[in-house]
Write a structure and sequence with these properties.
It catalyses: adenosine 3',5'-bisphosphate(in) + ADP(out) = adenosine 3',5'-bisphosphate(out) + ADP(in); dADP(in) + ADP(out) = dADP(out) + ADP(in); ADP(in) + ATP(out) = ADP(out) + ATP(in); ADP(out) + CoA(in) = ADP(in) + CoA(out). It is found in: Mitochondrion inner membrane. By secondary structure, the protein is mainly α. It contains 14 helices and no strands.
Amino acid sequence: MAHGVHDHQGRLPVAQAAVLTLPAPSQAKDLRPRLTALDSLLCGAFAGAVAKTVIAPLDRTKIIFQVSSKRFSAQEAFRLIYCTYVKDGLLSLWRGNSATMVRVMPYAAIQFCSHEQYKRQLGSYYGYQGKALPPFPRFLAGSLAGMTAAMLTYPLDMVRARMAITAKEMYSNIMHVFVRISQEEGVKTLYRGFTPTILGVIPYAGITFFTYETLKKLHTEKTKRSQPYPYERLAFGACAGLIGQSASYPLDVVRRRMQTAGVTGSCYSTILGTMRAIVTQEGVIRGLYKGLSMNWVKGPVAVGISFTTFDVTHGLLLKLHQMGYFIH
């Protein structure tokens, strides 16, 4: 038997030696292509741009109602859209969208990219590397991603809000807004409303990413398909946006009031003071939840498009890497 295993010089046959020297699976190098942070940034920027451009007219209309004391209704909202169209033309409905793009592309890029990084880090920390995270880390990854994006892009959100509610004569372009606010109200004004923004983005981003990731996980378990179809992603994103925005909406109203106080003539300097003034003058539902019904239309659409676009472009880039079109 021993002579059957060794050759005449006592050496192992080549095939058997190769088998015996194979590295353990845990030590083998993963040669599958992996997307870089730059890939995630590009996918996120594109997703944010597509989603926000689609719902820009509704977003602008919502902001106008949020910062005024007018009573909101669907009829009044669409009347405002129609009057704006008749008075200033179709493109006026997208006024401020350039500022939105300047803000939302880096915001979405940072948010999606940092979410991928936080998922990877939390997965490693909790021992779920390459697997779906448990509920709390799943929520935490979304919240941290939203906070990171909001902190790095906040002044652009202020500029966008100002452009959305003012006429062309007041602010001609994005740089004009920055210059006028800095000269007339001080640089500190560019960060007015920052605290309610962060307080609002923690539940919003956390719940939105948590809901979307959870629905994808449940879908995989039920259908045994690793990836949902695009229309299923749209539905998951819509549910995530609906729940996330409803939970954080009052803080969104507060932040808009504080951001636009310089041009509306109001005096909103603190979160509690702004909330108290809104509730006193307009009531809880008609004040803090003004425009929420419009958000129930535009929010799920925007989030659904955003998540779907990101996942689809992410998957497309991964396939291109696998086919050898890109080399890291």
